[in-house]
Design goal:
alpha+beta, 6-stranded mixed sheet, 22 strands, 345 residues, Tachylectin-2, Chain A
Length: 345
């Protein structure tokens, strides 16, 4: 009887000790939580709302937000394919509850009939950036090896169409070879077009850098780029203070492909509550274009509140909505989601 009591007491002591440690661990764990921001969905009307529209980039052309499908020829048109736009006022009215209807987009005809003859293994458009009436687009291809291309075109008739130049297409030097990985981010400076490779983590791309071209697509050189783990999928325009934001996404089933090293941003700033809970990541990272290349900006990452493991959102397009925050869009995973993230900019 005494032996049983001693065993019970020892067991109870052990349980209380474990509980005490767990309680202390939870308390410390909660103290590490960093702020997270939820995405407010903005509903879209077809065809943009369809999963197969597979949006891969966003950029402003004046007050019109342009949506770039990865495969513009999936849409029926009299041209070679379609891009789409939605006016800024429509988006703001939706956010101000003045319009609760799904937003209807306008068509942009894309003229590029020659494209498939010039690019073997075409895998679609990945990024878009405008400079006045000129559009720059990044293309991904796979013909035994991965390739990236930069093409330019002219915006016509107040964005009714974009005509790509047959003789204005160049190859972007690939830093490494990773399956289904190329350049998903384009930015415009006062002198250059800057292209950012998708994978810049320490273990997969140890000499990470961006590449830049002049406005006629002549290659100029390379810019050092931070060893950011996971994928870089788009960027906002560069602000007057030379800062900008990039979308940074990690799909946990791609761990073998991107082989992430220790996340220096996570070590410095910690994680949000849902980022502790799940093994994937959705966030925006503040960067700055400096005299020695691209470096981390002054602001901590904006961690996006995660939903569930089954609803990992592949954010492929990102812009700033002036005075309000960010607009962001997924491709087809888990479906087309167009969202607003409030943030003081």
């Amino acid at each position: 009887m005494l032996t049983r009591f001693l065993l019970f007491t020892a067991g109870l002591t052990l349980i209380l000790f474990v509980y005490s440690c767990e309680k202390e661990k939870v308390k410390e764990f909660k103290g590490d939580f960093q702020p997270e921001t939820a995405v407010a969905e903005i509903f879209l009307a077809p065809p943009l709302s369809e999963r197969w529209s597979e949006i891969s980039g966003l950029d402003w052309h004046g007050d019109k937000l342009v949506f770039l499908p990865q495969y513009p020829d999936r849409f029926e048109s009299d041209s070679d394919g379609l891009l789409f736009y939605i006016g800024k006022k429509q988006i703001e009215a939706y956010l101000d509850d003045k319009n609760s209807s799904a937003l209807v987009s306008e068509n942009i005809n894309l003229n590029c009939r020659w494209l498939n003859d010039q690019i073997d293994g075409f895998q679609g458009f990945e990024a878009i950036a405008f400079r006045d009436s000129v559009a720059y687009l990044a293309i991904e291809a796979n013909n035994d090896t991965m390739s990236g291309y930069l093409v330019m075109g002219i915006v016509k008739d107040n964005l009714k169409s974009i005509a790509l130049h047959e003789n204005k297409i160049v190859s972007i030097p690939m830093p490494v070879q990773i399956r289904n990985t190329a350049f998903e981010t384009l930015m415009i400076t006062d002198r250059f077009v800057v292209a950012v490779y998708e994978a810049n983590g320490k273990n997969v791309n140890p000499t990470a850098h961006a590449v830049f071209f002049d406005f006629q697509l002549n290659f100029v050189g390379e810019l050092p780029f931070p060893a950011i783990e996971y994928r870089i999928t788009d960027a906002t325009r560069i602000n007057k203070d030379s800062t900008f934001w990039v979308s940074n996404y990690f799909f946990n089933k791609e761990i073998d492909r991107y082989n992430p090293a220790d996340d220096v941003l996570e070590e410095k700033y910690g994680k949000g509550k849902t980022h502790y809970r799940f093994s994937f990541s959705e966030r925006l990272i503040n960067l700055k274009l400096g005299p020695d290349g691209i470096e981390y900006g002054p602001l901590p990452p904006l961690q996006i509140e995660l939903v569930s493991d089954a609803d990992q959102r592949n954010w492929e397009g990102l812009v700033i909505l002036p005075g309000r925050g960010f607009l962001i869009v997924t491709d087809k995973f888990p479906r087309t989601i167009f969202g607003f993230i409030p943030f003081a900019l």
